[in-house]
Amino acid sequence: MARDIREVDPDALGELTKQASEALEPVVVRGLASNTPVVSSAIQGDRDLLSYLSGLAHPREVMVLHANEDVEGKFGYSADLSSFNFRRIQTSFPAFLDALRDGTFPPGAVAVQGLQANHVVPGFVEDNAIHFLPAGGEYRLWLGTGAVVATHSDPAPNVAYVAAGTRRFTLFAPEEVGNLYMGPFDPVPNGTQISLADPMDPDPARFPRFPGALERSQTSELHPGDAIFIPTGWYHHVEATSPLNLLVNYWWRDKREAPSPWDALMHGFMALRGLSPAEKRVWRAMFDHYIFETNGDPGSHMPPRVRGILAEAKPQMIEEMRRTLVRSLSGPRG
């Protein structure tokens, strides 16, 4: 049975975010952002919230997602997975706010997703930031009517707070990836894969492993001012259930020179998927030992001076490995 996401106080969240790369579980903090101006305006009413945002809004172009009523706010794929069940409308951010206020969009659900706060509402971050979060990240806004963001994961740790409306989060551990029935890598609705299985309407006949993942999931319903910390790679399904909803989130990355793990995954598709079962057995063991270190430090039995690529990666070493890979990928085929 799904369990509630663990709740902690702001101090505990602050410690977690300092060591986000080690965090293994999500947490919720009630009322973390309750005293911010954006939450205070939202509590007064939808029109007050929209007026507050309009007072800061920059006339920057944004992409609005619109889904017809029959979609029930569930932005995702068409039936054959070749396209999407929504259309995109380009407009300015102030015009989007006006349309929300006046109700002039066509029937259905509308949303703007992942807008950089500093671009569309200059000055917003100074007044509405969570100040103990690590530096180097970026605040983004997710604003619209009642809608659903399909299950997906992000390649960075994330702290998000509900500024307006109510959002229900359903989270799945990274190990559940094989039970979530993820969709194509291309096309994707908003830059990342999404699950084809729906927590709101499970289909055990089509997705037989999904009910087990749903039983092991963690859930929480957040109200204005409440915040959630989602560790890197945790899959999350988000339902915005109020007529008007605003989520403010903050992503940041560890400072490191290494390439993205996604690059390694793409290389794996090319180099590993076509191997025979015997060869896959060999390389699974190699990755477990050298990359995921299931047996501990693979170089611990050697003096540090001779460990080479088994030592802590230095910029010069990473650059040499990068050149080796480029030569390999650029070499003759066949």
UniProtKB/TrEMBL annotation:
Name used for this protein in its record: Cupin-like domain-containing protein
Pfam families in the record: Cupin_8
InterPro entries for the chain: Cupin_8 (IPR041667), JmjC_dom (IPR003347)
Organism: Sphingopyxis jiangsuensis
JmjC domain ranges (all copies): 78-269
